[in-house]
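Milestone M4 deliverable, item 7.
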Amino acid sequence: MLLPAVEPLLAALVDSVRQALSQRPQPLIVGIHSGGVWLAEHLATTLQLTDPIGALDISFYRDDLSRNGLHPTVRPSRIPWDIEGRHLLLVDDVLYSGRTVRAALNELFDYGRPASVTLAALIARNGRELPIEAQAIGARLHLEPHQQIKLRGPVPLRLELIEAQP
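Output delivered:
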């Protein structure tokens, strides 16, 4: 599979976010470590938002760590403002099963109750396990079950296809 270039996907994501946020005044941007944070920084700059971005490390909120044998490097989350009653833009690099976003929402609600959460993802791929969909995306991709896509960066941002044994 030939992966799309990142620059056109970023432009499509920015356009999609603008449309999704047209009725949401002054959103606060929160990226999910690590690719979502890189994308959140890009969106904040491109959309000329002045508030600092937030960053979530959802490692302790995942429900599949022991099942997948993952041993994450835990980074502290950084939410530099009160989210109570605010509109949030939650940014992730790849929306796959929906479990990362579920974990991020659980962590966000530990900080307060936002007025709304809009989800943005650079790539939305097939294979959802939870009923979670992004309101803003750069592209939709169909991958085989043995394939994964990973955003590498931070500079330059690039996509990598990872093939496991089928």
